[in-house]
Amino acid sequence: MSVTESSRMQSNQSPTPGMGAILLEQGVAFRVWAPHADRVTVIGTFNEWCGDANPMKRDENGYWYAVVENASVGDQYKYRLTRGEQTFDRIDPYAREVTNSVGNAIVHDPTYDWEGDDYRLPAINELVIYEMHIGTFRRSDDQMPGGFHDAISQLPHLVALGVNVVEIMPVTEFAGDYSWGYNPAHIFAIEQAYGGPRALKDFVKAAHRAGIGVVLDVVYNHFGPSDLDLWRFDGWSENEKGGIYFYNDWRSTTPWGETRPDYGRPEVRQFIYDNAMMWLEEYHVDGLRYDMTAYIRRVYGIDASDIPEGWSLMQWINGEIQRKFPGTLLIAEDLQGDEWLTKSVEEGGAGFTAQWDAQFVHPVREVVQQVEDEHRDLTKIRDALCFRYNHEAFQRIVYSESHDEVANGKARVPEEITPGQADSFYAQKLSILAAATTLVAPGIPMLFQGQELLEDRHFDDGDPVDWERADRFSGLLQLYHDLIHLRLNRAGYTRGLLSQHIHVHHVNNTDKVIAFQRWMDHGPGDDVVIVCNFANRSWDAYQIGFPCAGNWRVRLNSDWKGYSEAFSDQPTGDIEAIAQPRDGFPATGELSLGPYSVLVLSQDPS
Questions:
Q1: Are 187 and 279 in contact (CB under 8 A)?
Q2: Helix (H) or strand (E) holding 483
Q3: CATH of the domain at 206
Q4: Is residue 101 situated within a structural domain?
Q5: What is the mean pLDDT of residues 71-90?
Q6: What CATH number has the domain bearing residue 530?
């Protein structure tokens, strides 16, 4: 559906625009889509839940509309639908707030004092993302999941770390109080256990004041599957499927139940479009990350079972977002390596800004998780560093940990390296190699909450981040801080890390050393050389090529004992490269390397 089609559909409805509960000067208007219902009424605290007090009038296209003059903000309500001999109550699909996933809708006032909030994301090459789960990021009550206000209290940690975007796992109302969020029961309502809609706005405003953008995870590849009032919403269905909001044939099948929305039905397309726009218009979020787009565009995700209307839905929404909210960060989790996700809508692409990159995370984790050094294949690191979509490095999100990669049978990188001993020498060293590779690679780097604290085990929605580890591993926390500040060129001598340019000029798969150059325009303060030792041995005089002769200063040595008492503290000083060709470069430098370590080198600005 195009924006023109959307406008035409709205113009055919009753005079008061909008869906769900619409605040009026006197009372509340209600609109719901239920094309197969014979009768619909609004019931709630304003009429003592009486099914005859406020009947709704059927409008065009199966919409029902009523004005309840004595309804007001805070009232609870539902729709009572009758179809034939069936009568049932349903929560408003457009409810901005609910008492809980199986409770009642609440008439919500979306107005909020943003106090002049006009935050804008940094340039795409300056983004460093931190993936966060609100329920476990910070918890003030052992009996309840964490909430938005708990997360606000921990924002200073992120500011000090240096990240400038948080990517929040889904926060729409789900079954129960504990969840990853990928089981949305009501996609317009905010999880009450997290604090509800006003608390989310408080969080976004606080993040913006701290200089941090907010990207929100949205789930459009399926709904539910539990606590789902959308299921057979008006009583109609075919083939024992889900009714008007869902496919009622073989296309309904997803890994999460028979709950794929019907992307070809105009009213369902509008429902999802309206939801995407709500986050930007009402909550001031700076981007959306679509969960598993492979299952929006294909029935089975990985084969030729295409859903053309799923593709066109993403094009429509993304195109309209880019038109109305230029600069919004639109991220696809697709993981199929398809460059069409991040081609423009005008080219026939889906119009995403970037996509999570399986071509990076899987080989990097595989290499660092090898038990024996001899099995670490550095050509996989080289290829992971150089991969890109449509020749653009910033069309990919690079990471070594995410919620999917540290659960579902997998664990945190340190835990995978030495199970049960996530604080071991090997776990610290090799997990830092993975994280450092992420933070110096072309692309948009992302960390997962607690990664900077050497979190152990696996991600669990009932297990909060252990903030006591910030003291225990303060040195490693400093190392992450230092890497991020180098990445963002905070000191003015690593500008090349902000570019998409890379040249891997040294791959020693025998001794397990790899070196590469990053640059923006070349020259002192711009060219950066990174050297990574993927072996448990040190070097006193390892030679690699340099872009030019002269003094190259060590900006970071991950083997420094200040980062961890377990580290070797291999002495490493500045390097005087001489005019002797090596590795395709005009100069050679001799450097000292600690085991499993990273060196970042550059020249002082002119």
A1: no
A2: helix 474-487
A3: 3.20.20.80
A4: no
A5: 98
A6: 2.60.40.1180
